[in-house]
Amino acid sequence: MVSVDEACAETGTAGRPDRRALLVEAARELFTERAYDEVTTSEIAKRAGVAYGLIAHHFTNKRGLYLATVNTAADRLRAVHEAPPTGDTPAAMLREGILRHIAFVEENVEGYFALMHGGSGSDPEVRAIIEDFRWTAATRLMRMLGVQEPFRPVLRTAMHGWSGFMTESLIDYLRNSDLPREDLATLVVRALIATLRAAHAIDAGIGISPRLIDELAS
C-alpha cells in the first residue's frame, strides 16, 4: 500500500499535496494498527501533517474517513482484477487471475486485513462495500466464462459461497504462512470447479457446460 510519505508525492491543484489523499493514507495506517474506537481524528490529522479541520471538510467525521479508507482499499484491489487476463485457455486465465490476486494481497497484507475485517463489523455501509467488491469479482469471473447476469439462483448462491471460501482461505494463508502460493491457487481453483459442478448438477441451465468446467480442471 502507499504510505503517507509516498502520498505526499501526489499533487493536487497547482502542485499542492493532495491533503485528502494524505488523510486517507494516514487513517488507513492507524486503523490497521489499532481498533477503530482507539483511533482519534486528531492523531489522524497529525500523522497526515494537515490541519484538523480538513477531516470535517472532506469526510464530515471519523466514520466518513473510515468509509473512505475501506473504499480506497477496495478500489486498489479491484484494479488488479480489472487488468486483462493472460493465458490462451480458460484454465490458464483463471489460474493467472487467482495468482495475481494472491500476489497483490501478499504485498498489501495490512491493507487487505483492514479491508476484509471491516466487512465483519456492524456498520451496514462498510459491509455493503465489502460485499459489493467480492460480488463484483465473482461476476467478472463468470463473465470471463461466458455467463451474464442475472445468474440462475443456484449459481448466484454457489458463487457467493465460493467467494467466501476464497477470502477465508487467503486469510488463513496470510496468518500462517505455511502453504506455498501455488498450492493455495490450486486449492481455490479446484474449489471453484467443484462448486460449478455441484451447481450444474442441480441446474443444468446455469450457462456453464460440463465441457467448460472440465477445461478449467485441465
Number of domains: 2
Global shape: elongated
User: Percent range for helical residues?
Assistant: over 70%
Which CATH-level-2 architecture of the largest domain? Answer: Orthogonal Bundle
- In terms of DSSP E residues, the strand content is under 5%
Structure summary, number of beta strands = 0
Order of helices and strands: HHHHHHHHHHH
Distance between the termini: 35 Å
Domain HTH tetR-type: 17-77
Pfam family, one: TetR_C_46
Protein name: HTH tetR-type domain-containing protein
DNA-binding region: 40-59
Kindly summarize this structure in a few lines:
The protein has helices at residues 4-7, 19-33, 41-48, 53-59, 62-82, 90-107, 109-118, 124-144, 153-176, 181-202, 210-217.
What distinguishing features does this structure have?
mainly alpha, Arc Repressor Mutant, subunit A, 72% helix, 0% strand
Q: Which helices and strands, and how do they pair?
A:
Blueprint: H1 4-7, H2 19-33, H3 41-48, H4 53-59, H5 62-82, H6 90-107, H7 109-118, H8 124-144, H9 153-176, H10 181-202, H11 210-217
Helix pairs in contact: 2-3, 2-5, 2-7, 4-5, 5-7, 5-8, 6-10, 6-11, 8-9, 9-10, 10-11
Keywords: DNA-binding, Transcription, Transcription regulation
Protein name: HTH tetR-type domain-containing protein
DNA-binding region: 40-59
